[in-house]
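Example with several molecule types.
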Amino acid sequence: MAPKNTLLHGTLEVLILKTVSQAPRHGYAIARLLEERTGEAIQVEEGSLYPALYRMEQKGLLASKWGRSELDRRAKFYGLTRKGRARLSEEVEAWTAFSQAVSLILAG
Amino acid sequence: MISAEIVKLSRRTLARVFKTPVAAEVKEELDFHIEKQTREYQATGMSRDEARRVAEARFGNLSKVVSDLEKIGKRRDEVMARREWWGESRRDVRYALRQLRRSPGFAVVAVLTLALGIGANTAVFSVINGVLLKPLPYEAPEELVSVTSAFPTMDFDRFWISPPEYFELREWNQVFADIGGYRTGTTSIETNDRPLRVPSAVASWSFFPTMGVSAELGRTFSEEEDLPGATPVALISDGLWRRAFGQDTEVIGQTVRINGVASTIVGVMPPGFDVEDAGVDVWRPLNIDPNDHVNRRGNHFLNLVARLDDGVSLERAQADLDRLEVRWEEEFQGTHTPSSEFHPFRATDFRTDVLGDVRPAMMLLLGAVVFVLLIACANVANLLLARSERRSKEVAVRVAMGAGQARLVRQLLTEGMTLALLGGALGLALGHFALQGLLRVNPDGVPRVAEIGLDGTVVLFTGGVAIITGLLFGLAPLINTTMAKVGNTLKEGGSRTTRSSAGQRARRMLVVAEVALAVVLLTGSGLMLRSMATLQDVDLGFQAENLLTMEVSLPAADYPTPVDVGAFFTTALERIRALPGVVSATAMSGLPPLRTLDANDTEFEDMEPTEEGPPHNVDYWTSIDADYAETMGIRILEGRGFELADALAETPVMLVNERLARTFYPGQTPLGRRIRPGPSWFTVIGIVADMKQAGVNREAGTELFFYSPQLNRTDGFAYRTQNFMIRTERNPLGLAEPVRRLLGDIDAALPISDVQTMEQNLATSLAQPRFMTLLLSLFAAVALLLAAIGTYGVMSYSVVERKREIGIRMAMGADSSSVLGMVLKQGAVLAGLGLVIGVAGAFGLTRFLTAQLYEVGTTDPGAFVLAPLFLALVATAACYLPARRATRVDPVSALREE
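Resulting structure tokens for the full complex:
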């Protein structure tokens, strides 16, 4: 199990972008999704999640909207903006290229 | 798309309504997360409290996280709000541009109109900025004072200072921190390539510290170098250093021949340092003994500049001068002693002196510019009002859709600003080119020409004007909308109902105002044009056509005696006369029509100076050579002119001009009488018709003429600086090179300067009134154009409005000529009113032009009749097209139209 705090600066952003890419989600859902999908390999610190979300909204990568939640009270949903979507595909490309390069070295 | 807009609108509205602070949002968001987490834990069997505790613990230091988020959240909101504001502005601008593209006619006319008005503004402000506002190239020029003297009994209101007076003033005054003196002139300097003749000045060593300027390279004069007999030194200007010395830093210490004398260059002055706009290239010291209080008391040639001591006012300085006049009177006796009655001293603000009488002219220009700008603004306001009425329906719909008042105001302001900024940018460019054109055509029109140009201040000024205009115009449509009830517009959906009569009246008043302003400008311009025409036709006292002139100055080192000087001119003139294309040639000290005043004391035989009589002082002493009459076309009125025989005659002879004859020999003839300018008595043998010497637009002064060939023989005196006057068959400048070469053959080191035709010289002397006339006429033309456009615009709109009425009339049997008449009548009423007001205004305002007009009254009927007439013609033309369009109205469709 990967220890906490090994998330490189900026990786959290990409992961968040991906998690909201299909539909807007609130903060709790984002955290849980990340844990589920990675089989708990990545555990997001709640203390760093929300600052990241706020900053991403400031940068224009996410757009937030208050909406009705499954708890019958208001929750803030974060969705991808056009800028965010573009950033996501950039990062995916970069990450893919990077990991391929690393794999080549490690394999050879 | 609409739904997204509405969602965004409602979110913002809600947010504004509830004004949820960041803290509350953060709390709500985290509360949700923690609650969800708590329920998860509860599902695994934990108690609610335990679950909640663990959930909160997952945040670490929860309160710190909350306060951090509040900070981050605030910053986020700020950044996003700003981004949104910019986004909205960009959208507004794009919308505004789209609107303008949809009505290109309106856009072009509006932008051009603004550009014309703002462009005129820019050009004139550049001039005013360069001439009046830019600081002079001296330290604290507001502390500087010009000290001048006067001889009121001799009608000399403003005179120079003599060296002993200057030194005594330095010693005795109690109000000045320092005083310096200077006198401008020309000199020759031999550089590496060739001898140059340049504007020069002699200045006391104290002049530079007084002005607060030190040398850029090297130093200025020391006190010892200013004494008579000191080793000759000189300062050169930055311009000369670049032009003739290649910016070589080794120039300090170099010896060059200045006026034939070997002088050492001790310093280079900083760029822009100058006096009297003369372009001084060489400065030399005065070389006068400060302890000599006896000699040269009457030799007044110095301009004095003094710096006031700390806290001393101009009035106190004047009081000190008054005190000194008394002291002078007590210590010295003599005709030239300073005294309050005969030879007073005056202190005036230096800056006012430098700018001379240009300031009122500048103010006049400013007035004209304000007029033109007002007309332009009136036009654009008209256009916008008309347009806003057509758009008021659209505006009303937007208001109903929930666009807040503030948002709407912003949108309209942006539209106005976009228009104004476009017009301003174009206006800046127009103004720049107009200015360049003006300065190229008339470079000597104003002082400090070198400092006139588009600079930061001008751009800022233009920008400011454009922005204010934009703001005002942007709001115009909104005012119109709020005046017309929005609801009504929507319900009735008609284009006629919102047409408030107030709007109509406003537009009509604007046209009347425009026409009036244009009339005033046209009248002023007409007066100036007439004045210029009069000046062109003035009798100069000589023939100016086909006359080539050039100045030479013979240095004492190369031509020590007057005989040498005379020999040079005789030889030179002989050879010049032999050149093909030359009709005749002569030489003359002084160059009409604008010469420096001599004002020399002269004795008249059998005449004692009296209290009421004229002072025995002649304004101009002129020395002329053989063939002057045919060369210059001077008229001899009585007696005879000089003849070759006079050169060898024993009795010195002299000519006088009409003015001198009238002044000193009223009712008698001066012929045969004798006058003594220097050691010898001269007999008057003829009277010459007055030649202009004080400027084309001033009366001639008193003048006497020596015969150069005779003068150097009898009096042992010769004028070293003279002007060759060469009359040619045609194209005088074509002979410039041949004459130069000829003179070079006689003396290769002799510099020649001011090679020009007399007509060019005349043009320079008329430069200032020409400049003003040009500018004023330009404004009048612009005003005329704008008034025409404005009239056309309003009449067009009026026709559109009255379409229904016209349709009815036509249906009732009115024919096209009566419809034409109806529209023209409406236009005539407006224009007529404007003309009447304009003429009345012109009567009152042209008074300000008095200083500029030459022999033309400020209520000259010619201008006052022609200007309104011309405008009436233009206005009629402007009304004609819309009137014709009115006759084409199809009554059926007009009646059906709603």
